[in-house]
Amino acid sequence: GSVGTVTASGTSTNVAATFTVTVVSTGYGNKYYVNGSQQATVNLSEGSTYKFDQSDNSNSGHPLRFSTTSNGTWAGGSQYTTGVTTSGTPGSSGAYTQITVAVGAPTLYYYCTNHSGMGGQANTP
Fold first, then answer.
1. Is the alpha carbon torsion for 73, 32, 57, 15 positive or negative?
2. 20 to 6, 13, 74, 80, 110: CA distances (angstroms)
3. What is the radius of gyration, based on Cα positions, of the chain?
4. Which of the chain's ends, N or C, has fewer CB atoms near its CB within 10 Å?
5. Cα-flanking dihedrals φ and ψ of residue 124, to 5°?
6. What is the rounded distance in angstroms from the CA atom of residue 33 to the CA atom of residue 23?
7. E strands within the chain?
8. Amino acid 2: pLDDT
9. 3-class secondary-structure state, position 79
């Protein structure tokens, strides 16, 4: 017999990589740490999907979003929403911000919608 092919339906996508996000209080205020590195620059390939896991309780009150402007809305930029989905409450189990990077996407910056100066850069090479 032939082997059937099952195609996922709905919004499920293959996540290329998951970044673990934590928030650490430094001498200069709270900062996002990505995979343990303060305000790490992340590389996101166009056409791929990435999950920024905010389930660690340090993320409470620090929703991670994207912008084309460094420091996002704090620097007069606007929130970048193309391909971005969010789930749950930051600091709670299962919370994340996920992005499927559009082809031709600009350089992005991740930031906190509640506090200035926490984020970093996301290259889309």
1. positive
2. 30, 18, 23, 20, 13
3. 15
4. N
5. -125, 70
6. 6
7. 15-26, 29-34, 37-38, 42-43, 49-53, 64-67, 79-80, 84-87, 96-100, 108-112, 120-123
8. 58
9. strand
> Can you say how many angstroms the Cα of residue 66 is from the centroid of all Cα atoms in its chain?
7
For the record, the structure tokens of 71 come out as 């420091």
**Closest among 122, 100, 109, 81 to 16, alpha carbons compared:** 100
Position of tokens 């996407």? Answer: 105
In order along the chain (125 residues), what is the average pLDDT of each group of 10 residues?
A: 52 82 95 97 96 98 98 98 97 97 97 98 94
pLDDT at residue 125, as a whole number: 84
| Residue 103 phi, psi (nearest 5) | -65, 130
Q: Please report, as a single letter, which amino acid is at residue 41.
A: T
Looking at residue 101, the DSSP 8-state letter turns out to be P
Residue 118: which of 21, 27, 29, 20 has the closest Cα? 29
pTM: 0.88
Per-residue DSSP letter, 107 = P
